[in-house]
Description:
Blueprint: E1 2-6, E2 21-29, E3 37-43, E4 48-49, E5 52-61, E6 65-72, E7 79-88, E8 95-103, E9 110-111, H1 130-139, H2 146-160, H3 175-178, H4 195-207, E10 212-219, E11 239-247, E12 252-256, H5 258-268, H6 276-283, E13 292-296, E14 301-302, E15 308-309, E16 316-319, E17 334-340
Antiparallel strand pairs: 1-5, 2-8, 2-17, 3-7, 3-16, 4-5, 5-8, 6-7, 9-12, 10-11, 10-13, 11-12, 14-15
Helix pairs in contact: 1-4, 2-4, 2-5
Amino acid sequence: MIFFAVTAIVNSQADAVAPARKVELVQDYRPKVQAGTLDLFIPLPFENANYQKLLSEKYESNATWVKEEVVPLNKSGDSVRLFHAHWVQIDKPSLRLWQVISISDRDSGVPAKSADPSFLRTTEHIQTDGEVKETAEKITKGLSDPDEKAKAIYDWLVDNSLPDLRSSTCGEVDLKTMLPTDSKATATRSSEKCADPNALFVGLARAAGIPAREVWGLRITPSTRPKSLKKAEDAAKAQHGRAEYYSKIKKAWFPVDPVDVRAIIRDEELSPQDARLKELRPRFFGAWEGNWVAYNYGRDFQLATGKKVNYLMSPLLFSGEFPPTSMDSAESGYSFSAKVLPERY
Length: 345
């Protein structure tokens, strides 16, 4: 049995936010897939963000080997951190991962001298040309301040995107199919949960010359906000993506989440004129609730095995050359729990 533990060194930073709570995460994997070889990829959280600190991390496994892999995303050092477990002819494969993380509410930007150029580029799933650029120009017409442009895009998505909360997927992302075909740019045609609308924010922002990126993660504790934002009963199904844009004026990355606003609008059946929207809009532009763990900014990258990934906020289980096994299926043997620890832990 392999056992490994690492305790993160938490640096004191002038811009660090005092942690609001400590949370223990426990993930269990006992795949029932019959295959000669298995590969499991588990996304790992940011170790030392100003709103999140990894305090400890350890695992037990009967895998043939397990290693931490870091997939670079750009020249500025941004990367996707993950565990890669590999089994060869193991009768009952298993892995358990424990993590303790401190998380805080985020109500300010994360300081950065600049944004990597990669956060302005077009990718396979994040287009910035054609309809995307035309729509961004319509939304930001007459505006020169980049922060005002970002807010205009956010407001447009709050008013027009329609996330399907019944969908079992977080979204496949095809920006051009989500945009309206009429010249008025009044509504998106299709958006599924978090990935699609936030990807659309990123694409529209980049098309308007504003660096932007998605942040993939998991809701791990109940929300103090409306029930649409509560953690799923099964933490293994509580994935949620958010977005950030870079303010060239304020020299910082700011969070946005139009999807959560839309979820509340749907859940509470709010009209566009409802006074409650005046309260909601600013709460999700430049801030996010600390009931969520952030994993990575990855989009359209390759794993060490060469397999291409759209985005990664759920584990991936590969048996041989077949497509990944759904983590919602009984064959995955996947379970996830999260609990808030006492303050003195």
